[in-house]
Structures are given as C-alpha cells and as structure tokens.
Amino acid sequence: MRNITKMLADVGYVVYQEDFEKPFIEVSADFYRGESQQYIDCCDCGEYLKKAEKRLNEEIERVSHYLDLKTEAKITNVVEKEMIENLKRCLQSLACAKGRNVLRKEPMSKDIGEDDIFFFNDKFTSKFYKVKIGTVVAQKESEPEKLETRQRVEEDRKPQIEAAIVRIMKARRVLDHNNIVTEVTKQLQSRFLPNPIIIKKRIESLIEREFLERDKEDRKLYRYLA
C-alpha cells in the first residue's frame, strides 16, 4: 500500500510539473521580463528595487497558498533573474560600457556588486540632444554555473523518469534492462532525451524503495512489485 501511494504521488507530481508548473514558470518569466523593462523606463533605481521586492514577496505568498511548495524556489529564481538581472544590465550599460559613461561607479569594474555605489559622471558630454546607450548583453554562464544548471535539470527530471519506469513496469510486469531504457526513452523523448546512465540509477533507486526487484536467476530482468 505504501508503494502504491508513493507511486501515485510521483505520477501526480509529474503531471503537475508538466501540465501546470512548466507553462506557469514560462509565462511568469515573459511577464516579468516585460514588466521589468516598463519599470526601468519610468522608475528611479530605488523605486524599481521596491517594486521588484514587492513582486517577489507576492509570488512567495501566492505559492504558499495555491501551489506546491517546491515551486517557490523556481518562481523566486524567475523574479530575481528577470527583475534584478535586467536592472544590472541597465546599470552596466550606463556605467560599465566602453566609451564615456553617463554614470560612474565605485569600485570601477565591469561587474555589478551588491555594495557598489553609482553617481552621475559630471564629465559626460554629448553634442546630441538624445544619447543612445549601448545595451550590455547578458553574461554567459561560467563553468560552475553550467554544472549547477545541469545538476538542477537532472534533479528535476528524476521524478519524471521514475514515473515512466513505474508506468512501463506496471503494464509489462517483467522486463529486461535494455527494453526498459528503450521504453522510457520513447515515452519521454517529446520532453527530453533521458540519459541511459540516469535511467539505470533511477531503476536502482526504485529497487531500493521496493517498487522493483531483480530476477533471482537472470540479473538483467526486473520485476514489478507494487
């Protein structure tokens, strides 16, 4: 009974992730990207930060009342990325781009830090009434950041892979390792291509949690237990 309950919870969470959470995060990212630009166009820096903090608190409150708590970290990351990183790029364009800058900052560096101080560059001049400011593009991820992103993606995919294995084994009852990998890949390929090594690890995890067992005579065969 415990295994069946856990299986239903896993499958239900995968449905929640795919049918609601993923599109919700994508729509939220688009919304805050646009709103961030609107705030930059009409607000000073202090007002912008107050609005960004208000939005962040609103999303945390919404998650606590209506969504799975695991969604909180994801939506928080979206708000911070779209609201704060967009502001950082704007400040970089004004203070860190090549050529004469409208703003100066201390300490002088190409990156924006939490303790940096910005002030108007009184040496800035232009013969034009309107000044075009070059936009600083988003920085590429560093190797540690790329590794962290890959690990986070793999962690998010674990319940989806496990749910696919459980569905397949519940229907087939007995199956060898290669066929499990093939079937799981077919089921998930429209979303992502699962790594066979990760599938193997999820099979081992399901064995430890007594969803599956290895055949006593043929170790390449797995049996469904729940």
UniProtKB/TrEMBL annotation:
InterPro entries: Cullin, Cullin_homology_sf, Cullin_N, Cullin_neddylation_domain, Cullin_repeat-like_dom_sf, WH-like_DNA-bd_sf, WH_DNA-bd_sf. One of its GO terms (biological process) is ubiquitin-dependent protein catabolic process. It comes from the Eukaryota. Residues 153-220 form the Cullin neddylation domain. It holds the Pfam family Cullin_Nedd8. One of its GO terms (molecular function) is ubiquitin protein ligase binding. SMART domains: Cullin_Nedd8. Belongs to the cullin family. This is Cullin neddylation domain-containing protein. The lineage of its organism: Eukaryota, Viridiplantae, Streptophyta, Embryophyta, Tracheophyta.
